[in-house]
Amino acid sequence: MIGYVTVGTNDLQRAAKFYDAIASEMGVSRMMDFETFIAWGTPDGPAGIAATKPFDGNTATVGNGTMVALQARDQDQVHKLYEIALANGGTDEGAPGPRGEDGFYAAYFRDPDGNKLNAFVMTG
C-alpha cells in the first residue's frame, strides 16, 4: 500500500502554488511544511503527495516513465484538475477524455518541474 508519493522540485514555492491549487480541489491541504519539503493530504488518510528539493543537493529531475495518478470523484473533477494544472504553470500531456474501452477517463499533465501526473476516474 502506498503511503505517499514524492516528486522533486528545483523551486519549492512554484511547486507549492501548483500543488496547493490541486490539493484544494481535491479537498485536502498541506499537512507538513518545511523549508525544503511540503506534503499535502490528511494524516491517516489516503496516499498524499509531497514536493521536495533533493536531499543530496543535486538538481531535481523527472523519471522517464514515472507518473502520479490522482483519483478524481467524477469526469467534471478530471476536467477541473486539468484546468487547474494548466492555470498554475503545468503543461498539457493529454486533454481529458476516455482512454481505451474499460471506462477509464483521464487527463494528463506535467507540473512546473516536468513531473507527469494524471487525473482519472473509472466510469464503467
TrEMBL record:
Protein name according to UniProt: Glyoxalase
PANTHER family linked: BLL2941 PROTEIN, GLYOXALASE FAMILY PROTEIN (AFU_ORTHOLOGUE AFUA_5G14830)
Source superkingdom: Bacteria
Domain VOC span(s) in chain numbering: 1-122
Gene3D superfamilies reported for this sequence: 2,3-Dihydroxybiphenyl 1,2-Dioxygenase, domain 1
Taxonomy of the source species: Bacteria, Pseudomonadati, Pseudomonadota, Alphaproteobacteria, Hyphomonadales
Biological source species: Henriciella pelagia
InterPro entries reported in the protein's UniProt record: Glyas_Bleomycin-R_OHBP_Dase, Glyas_Fos-R_dOase_dom, VOC_core
